[in-house]
Amino acid sequence: MKESAKNIETVLGPINYVNESVIFLLLNKEMNIDKEDGVNFRNMILSLFQDQKFSIIVDARNYTGNASMDMIQYFTNDEKFNSQCVNQAIIQNSLSIKLIANFYIKFVSKPVLAKMFTNYDSALEWMLKN
User: Fold this and answer.
1) Which helix (H) or strand (E) holds 122?
2) What is the DSSP secondary structure assignment for residue 13, as one 8-state letter?
């Protein structure tokens, strides 16, 4: 993991801080995300925020890889991650990502607000309001 002032390279793609509690993740374009990748990402994010609440905007607009069902189930059932991550915005522009994101949103932990968007500005506006 490489850190600069507000930019961090992760296994899933680069993260930028929007503010002290909101991060923006640009998914690596062709990466196939398995459970191990999800666990590594989760651990890194929780280490950044310690016990602080946070929100995440995930940009999947150019993502052409696959996300494993094991990884999706891991995140939907992870009590620690879901107790700290209060909002999740998923930016998408393809039917395949929309289907995966919709499935994820329907099963994500109830305390977490999750919503899909087609552009960054709408996602950020929603995120900052919540």
Assistant:
1) helix 120-129
2) S
